[in-house]
């Protein structure tokens, strides 16, 4: 199939590369010429395991290209994915300005029947909104459908190539037929494609992320209670994870969730509920608890140093919001850094992939180290903020020699 993917952020780039991998002709479009130039040279603009080789292979074999020319991509393609950012507005709602703008742009270039796919996480009713924008500007039949992504950063290639399910919101028989054909190579083992109405598909993505955020937050609350009563959160995790109704995943306690999805989607779902005169009390609590959890290590640190962090060197392992990504959006580590610097501490940090992004955001306010052990040299304390696998079995003898205490 001939496909355009508009937007080469995390979702758009992974989507474009993986669609090309199964033989489709894919044009990825972005307004940033520097990003287009890098990607055209096979240089990925995000870190994702397995992405670089797949990107380079499909470029060299002529199935994948990158462009700033939205008109050319639109005219050459039968299916157009909208993989555009929907950041949180001040009131928590999803900002749809990018989607509206692109819908206005592509309408006049539609030269035959096309399927427009909302891949972005969008509020209920966005498919209808895009239809209303397109109809006055297009002379040809268009189906607008919802196809939310369920990609985990760090596992996105595997998630796209072998999805546990695909959700498609449309009632168009023609669109259903085309989407079955498009996704057939990815569900050969029998994993389901769920066809539903557009609004249900749009809400499915929010519901999934909000539920996972709730699960994480619940375990963090239990972990706090464990500390107070002397119980072991890891034993409890095993004890409840064996219950098939609960499952083993998303039960690890930590310092709160971050990233581009959970915080934004929890806020957006709260806003959708509010617009429909419903107080989503569970999500209110999830958001509040998670914001507090990001700073849960600070009282422990302050207590250890009797409230005086002036001049203390704090080593920090992990900057990304989760392992196997360079994404620092809403990362708890950044909030910890802000608070510690405000208390007079200095920070020496290491992360396998996220240091460049962090330096772009924080500048030279902290020290970036090329090795985890360089970060802890003469440090008064070590915070492990991201569960990268390389931190699971460190050299404790070497650590005891490098740390002050």
Protein model, in words:
- The structure is a single chain.
- Helices cover 44% and strands 13% of the residues.
- It is α/β, with parallel strands linked by helices and 405 residues long.
- β5 (114-118), α6 (126-134) and β6 form a beta-alpha-beta unit.
- It has helices at residues 10-21, 33-40, 51-60, 70-76, 97-106, 126-134, 156-161, 173-183, 198-229, 233-241, 262-275, 281-293, 298-304, 332-342, 355-362, 372-376, 396-402, and strands spanning 2-6, 25-29, 64-67, 79-82, 114-118, 142-146, 166-169, 193-196, 313-317, 346-350, 367-368, 381-384.
- The strands form three sheets. A six-stranded parallel beta sheet has the order 3-2-1-4-5-6, with helices on both faces. Strands 11-10-9-12 form a four-stranded parallel beta sheet.
Defining traits:
single chain; alpha/beta; 44% helix
Kindly summarize this structure in a few lines.
The protein is of the alpha/beta class and 405 residues long. The chain has 17 helices and 12 strands.
Please outline the helices and strands.
Blueprint: E1 2-6, H1 10-21, E2 25-29, H2 33-40, H3 51-60, E3 64-67, H4 70-76, E4 79-82, H5 97-106, E5 114-118, H6 126-134, E6 142-146, H7 156-161, E7 166-169, H8 173-183, E8 193-196, H9 198-229, H10 233-241, H11 262-275, H12 281-293, H13 298-304, E9 313-317, H14 332-342, E10 346-350, H15 355-362, E11 367-368, H16 372-376, E12 381-384, H17 396-402
Parallel strand pairs: 1-2, 1-4, 2-3, 4-5, 5-6, 7-8, 9-10, 9-12, 10-11
């Amino acid at each position: 199939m001939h496909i355009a993917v508009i937007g080469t952020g995390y979702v758009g780039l992974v989507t474009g590369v993986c669609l090309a991998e199964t033989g489709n002709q894919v044009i990825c479009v972005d307004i940033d010429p520097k990003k287009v130039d890098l990607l055209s040279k096979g240089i990925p603009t995000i870190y994702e395991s397995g992405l670089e080789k797949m990107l380079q292979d499909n470029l060299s074999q002529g199935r994948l290209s990158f462009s700033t020319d939205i008109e050319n991509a639109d005219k050459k393609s039968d299916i157009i994915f909208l993989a555009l950012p929907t950041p949180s507005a001040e009131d928590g709602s999803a900002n749809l300005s990018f989607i509206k703008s692109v819908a206005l742009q592509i309408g006049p270039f539609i030269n035959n029947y096309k399927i427009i796919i909302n891949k972005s996480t969008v509020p209920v009713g966005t498919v209808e909104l895009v239809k209303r924008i397109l109809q006055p500007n297009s002379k040809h039949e268009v189906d607008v459908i919802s196809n939310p992504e369920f990609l985990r950063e760090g596992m996105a290639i595997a998630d796209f190539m072998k999805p546990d399910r695909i959700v498609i919101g449309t009632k168009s028989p023609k669109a259903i037929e085309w989407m079955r054909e498009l996704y057939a190579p990815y569900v050969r083992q029998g994993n389901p494609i769920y066809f539903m109405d557009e609004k249900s598909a749009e809400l499915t993505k929010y519901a999934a992320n909000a539920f996972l955020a709730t699960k994480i937050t619940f375990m963090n609350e239990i972990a706090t209670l464990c500390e107070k009563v002397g119980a072991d959160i890891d034993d409890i995790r095993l004890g409840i994870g064996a219950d098939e109704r609960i499952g083993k995943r998303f039960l690890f306690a930590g310092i709160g969730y971050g990233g581009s999805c959970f915080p934004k989607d929890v806020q957006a779902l709260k806003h959708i509920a509010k617009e429909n005169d419903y107080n989503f009390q569970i999500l209110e609590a999830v958001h509040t608890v998670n914001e507090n959890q990001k700073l849960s290590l600070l009282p422990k640190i302050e207590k250890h140093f009797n409230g005086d962090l002036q001049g203390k060197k704090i080593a920090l392992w992990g900057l990304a919001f989760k392992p196997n990504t360079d994404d620092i959006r809403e990362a708890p580590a950044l909030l910890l850094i802000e608070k510690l610097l405000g208390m007079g501490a200095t920070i020496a940090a290491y992360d396998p992939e996220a240091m460049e992004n962090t330096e772009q955001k924080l500048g030279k306010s902290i020290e970036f180290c090329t090795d985890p052990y360089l970060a802890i040299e003469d440090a008064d304390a070590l915070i492990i903020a991201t569960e990268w696998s390389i931190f699971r079995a460190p050299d404790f003898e070497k650590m005891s020699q490098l740390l002050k205490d």
